[in-house]
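Annex B. Sample input.
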Amino acid sequence: MSKILKLVFVAILTISTLNADTALQNIIDDKKLVLGTSGNMTPMTRAIDGGKDAVGFDIDLARSMAETMGVDLEIKVLPFEKLIPALQNGDIDVIISNMTITPKRNTQVAFVGPYLTSGKCLITKKPDLASAKKADLNKASNKMVVLKGTTDEDFLRKGLPNVEAVLVTTQEEAIALVRDLKVSAMLSEYPICKAIITNNPNDKFISVFSKLTYEPIGIAIAPENTHLINWTQNFLVRANKLGLLKLIGEKWFK
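Annex B, continued. Sample output.
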């Protein structure tokens, strides 16, 4: 029996060694960090070159991670709702895409952060809507556009259930609907609302910021990749202490 137990122990130890977390080492060996991002949330992440590349706060943060690792950054622009499945399948190493840390998402992936906190806001061209209280906003006569698969959609359906939700996949579609008064407003998050107003001065958009929600934005990593999670935690601490996050923020949020 003693010999059998020893053999079982050796087998378990061998399997454990073979299945040990190698995600970070694979990134180092391959000299490539694969980022998943939606590319449709300016100034956090915006696709360019037909979706082959991206720019924004999140992209600069990912590039800093890759540079610190001593590897290249490969960017995969995917629909927001496909990011977590891609991470679970091992198609990407990390998600940095203005992704709010929610309890539901946290059952699927691990999160490092938050590296930024925000709250919900509205972009509208209607002054009366900008000054309305929540009860006045929650009317069937109001139509609001949100990006599909985001916490904005969840908040709209649960927080303003009487409002008609219009779902789109790109920020440009949402802005156009507000510009043409085909919807009452766009529901998004503060950095995005701020960028929309800055980048579209002739549209005379009005932004309404709400502190009714707490939006912690984090980096998503597959939960089994403990070494990569630990490395990213330490990276964010240093990035914050050394002022890197502040510098990137000043670049994109002015």
